[in-house]
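Final report, results section. Input specification for complex C-07:
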Amino acid sequence: MPVSIVTELLARYHERLSGFPAPLGQQFEAGLRALANRLTPSQLQAWAETGVELTALSLRSWEAAVEYFRAGTSYPPQAAWDAIETVGRDALQMAAESAPLAVSFLRAAPGAMEVIGPTNVHAWAELGRRLYKGNWKSSSLAAQFYEVAPELFRVLRIGQATRLVIFIDELARHSYELASACLASAPAVLSRLEEDDRLPFITFATELAQTSWADSRLYFDRGVPLIEKVHSALRERFLLLAAQAARGHHQRSAYQYFEEAANALGEVDPNDHQQVIMLAEQLAPYSPFAAMDFLTAMPTVLQRIRIDELEAWQQAGLRILQASAEGGEAYFRLQSTRAEDILENLSSRVELSRVGEVLRLYCKALTGRNVSIQTAESLAEKGIGWVDEHRASTDGSTIFLPELMERFPNKEENFAAMKVFATHQAAHIEFGSFMFDFDRAGSIFPTRRHAFARERERPATTDMEAFFDLFPDRQLASDLFTIAEDARIDARIKAEYGGIRRHLVRMQAEELERRPPVEMLPLRNAFVENLVRASLDGLHLVRWPRDRAEAMSRALGILNALQAPGATVEDAAEAALALYEIAVSIPNIYDDVDPGSWGAVEPMEAGQAMPMEVAGDEGAAGSQAQLGGSGPGEEEYESPQEIDFRGDFKPELVDLLMKLRENAQGGQAGQQQTMPLTPEQLAELLAKSVEIDLGAMDEGDLDASTGMFLSNLMKEAGTPASEKGDQGGQPTSDNSTGEGEGEEPLKPVVTVYYYDEWDFRAQDYKPRWCAVKEAKLEEGDEGFYEKALKEHAGLVAQTRKQFELMKPEMFRKIKRLPDGEDFDLDSAIEWMVEKRAGANPTEKIYWRRNKIERDVAVAFLIDMSASTDEEINKRDKKHDDDDYDDDPRKYLSWWVSKRRQELTSPPKRIIDLEKESTVLLMTALETIGDQYGIYGFSGYGRDNVEFFVIKDFDETLDQKIKNRLDKITPIRSTRMGPAIRHATFKLMQTDAKVKILFLLSDGRPQDHGYGRDRTEKEYAIHDTKQALNEAKREGITPFALTVDRAGHDYLKTMCEDMGYEVVADIESLPSRLPTLYRRLTE
Amino acid sequence: MAENGSVQGATIYAVEEYSVHEEPYYLPIGDEVQLFETAYRQRIPVLLKGPTGAGKTRFVEYMAYRLGRPMLKVSSRTGEEVEHRMPLITVACHEDLTASDLVGRYLLDTDGTRWVDGPLTRAVKVGAICYLDEVVEARKDTTVLIHPLTDYRRLLPIEKLGQVIEAAEGFLLVISYNPGYQSALKDLKHSTRQRFIAIEFNYPPRDAEAQIIAHESGCDDRTAMDLARLGEKVRNLKEHGLGEGVSTRLLVYAGRLIAQGIPARRACQVAITWALTDDSEVQRSIEEVVTSIFE
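Structure output:
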């Protein structure tokens, strides 16, 4: 039967199909045969009819028919007639619109049916049709959609595919290429995601396509690894957050938010993701951007506070966010002082950068020297022998401390710990650890070291070297000296500084808990370990074989004696020597007696423990032998475990460094000039010293690293101490360290200062937002100053006169006072007359001279922005145009005169007039004797606010400064706020009673990033206003002068209740400026 | 002339009648006592140099007491023998102090005017030690008076009266001057400077200062020592807006508070930290020094 129906149908349609190329007929037959067994004859007939119908739809629809028939051969077994019929119906509709679309649909249909199931085929067909917009590109996109079906539906369900199509459709509106690329990569990309994350992935993609479609490719290319940084259970929630952020419009693209947040989460412990994302979700309803920024800020924030403290910080921000979106967003962007402050308050750790200045002054107070404070890391970086980046130390002039302290749960304790660290180092300086003199006697111990001295080939470079040269085992000697000296220092601290004692005792106790078990050590190591314990006030923890108790007891007695108030570094050295003698008498072997025989040891009485003075020469010969090192069969001696708060003590190196510095400075006056050190001497010294581990500093061959070390050391010694304290860059740290020690650096120095910036939307400061780079302006042409004076000779004379008139008012006679220097004759006569007349005369008949001291400091701030390049004539062109009234002859004569004028003197620019006015004012100021500084500013962006010093307050007007004036030229933008803040800082350093800040500009403040975009004006104006307000709060009188005719509109806002003036006629600036100034200060 | 009298417990003296009755506590640090005595015998004017609160004024009082001690004088009015003491006239100079403030001026009286001697004139007349504290603060015209009084002439011209007064036997001019905090403008002129011998005052060494603090404040020796130590440390911070660092006077104040039971850290805070500076960073640093020293 089937055969007959096949034959019948073949015959029936033969004619209809014969007009088409051969494949059509062949596929028709193949399809018929394949389906004959599955379909009833009527179904088969319907199938065939649909196919034939297809051929007739359009010129090329026969191609669709071919595919239709071919599909018949490959339908999956579960495909029922319904499904096959639906395919046909969809194909017909499609082919009516676009034959190629139908072709690709039909080609993919059997495969798709297998993956999505026969029932979903229609929905799938519809999805594809949705992408078809009637043009060629959309048709090929839709075709592509059908083609990827097998791979795509392996990773997506049909419902999810709908979302994907929405995304692709959206993207196609912008770019078919992009849509096609994303579609192509979709199966692979999605397959890499967990099933639950796929839909959120697409949701975010869709949002992205709507707002910043161009990023979609990036997202498809890089999104998956980024998402994988998020904890797997939270990826969906994260993506939904990102999608919310994409819905709004903001400065940054949604993808950027997504990328930054994902990367940030990657740095956060995955176990914390749950909490972090939950907190972010709370922010999202108010501002999804804040939520994303919150995530982005996590690595920074969590470095400073613990995860359980995070909510408090987030809540504080949330409250701000609820009140003002701008404020809250700035908060979570960490661009708000409040965010910083709250973070700082929550954070329990102490950062050296924040307490460095306090500790510096503290150490300065303790030591009486200009010590500076730096991180231990910076010391290690110098490559001069210190390698540990975390241990405190000192080189005798700088104290190095760990960058962070977070060993305790609260800030106070962490700070106290930091202070103990600093105090120990300062005490080394204060109590003379580095002042060891080989020949000086101690105050407690008898001097025995000389007896042990060997013949020397050359005199020792440093006293410390001479001392350590006594010992065959330098490491042991160094360790013992360190213990002795640290014990002495700690004892001194406890005696002198009762307040810090408690913290010190606590640190010592903590160190004691960390000590290694002494019973496990070989004897000599155990001996040293016991000394360490004793030096930490842990006498009760000393354990020692009972049968050797005497040696230990004596050693403890020595250590005790050293803790007397009068002990000096020389005593520590003697103690070290005595301890060394005991130590070498103890073999470094494991004590095989059972641990039960170890017990506590009581220290000997000081007098008993004290070593005997070596009598004359008799002991000298033999004593050297007594200091011999380890014998055969003994364990290698190892240095005891480090003690944290005592840090790294390197007396030999510091001694050397101090020596080198002294040499570098050519020897102080009155000091004996020491012999300069030769590199060979140094190299020898370093090779001997146990304080430097050259190998640890740098891998590679030893000679090279020694060489480098030497040059580092020389460099360090040659560097004047004043240059070392500038790492902070805070406004206060520049001038405070090491004054007077070094010479002036020759090249122009750029000093960087950081200032906050006011964000009026957030109503908060952005902390340390602007970097102001201060440098002296270069010198220019010599003639400029004189030329300007000559040009304005008349004006100069006039201004000078005006200013001179202000001078004699120094003393003003004030009359009619109740008390004074003498009677005022007129008042006295009046008094007499009235008295005689019986009236009641006033007793105010005295006069006195009141001194009106002129004590004025003024900072001139000159706008050096590019706009000051404008020629003045151009500005005035409008007026010029009127002159010739369209009369060509008049125009010609006007033109000729203008040309002539231009030839004799080039056209003046705004900046030229600014400069000339400045010159005039300077001569006036010199007459009157006010302190003044002249500064220019320009720059581009917040990281680069250039602040040029033309004349600083403490400079006197000389040729150099006159030359600098010439170099005032238009440069770049106008970021007024930080320039004003810096000028304020400069003014505050003068002690004048009246302080004036004079701002001379040609237009509104403007800079890259000074506002939401280039056209926004409010932000810049508000920041400038705030800066002026700050100045005012400091008791400074700000005054703004602008030559911008449109200046009134913004100056009114900027200088609300401050003085300002708009000089409309710029040519009058040179005469106007001095007059204004005079009025301002009278 | 006003009689010595007493109003509500306060004793009122005419300026030239004030003398130091009780021996002031003064701990000599060097040979300043001997120097001053010799200078006084030779009538060489003395300039005391040094930072505030270092004991200049106390020293002058002490010297006035010492120099006045042996003399007894028969009162002209009563014939009784009364103890004569060296009168000490102290004038704190300020920037509006003029020559006539020192010499005297006419005052209004019922029928006209009456001349009233200024403190310097009175000192010259009775032969007192006249101590011009912080002399550079005064107006420049005061130097006109100082010069003739401080050389061999020992004369005080009173322009308005047309008089010249020869100084009485016991008269000596002592001025003090703080080189630390005056600006260069207010430096003492050389012509003035070179009429005085200069005794330099500095803060005493730690042990001596501790002794002074203990005596003056009544605190225990340990506290006094800690305060002296604190003083030494804080003075190391001199150039940070602290002028000369903490004065012995402030340390004594702190000691007195502590002796009265105020906790040491708090006492130092109010008497030292906050008294010295308004800069919060420096305050914090001093506070750290305080907490290191005091429990």
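Residues 206-293 of chain B form one domain. The interface with chain A takes residues 95-96, 98, 100, 105-106, 108, 112-113, 139, 160, 183, 226, 229, 232-234, 236-237, 239-240, 265, 281-282, 284-286, 288-295 of chain B (CB under 8 Å). This concludes the modelling results for the funded period.
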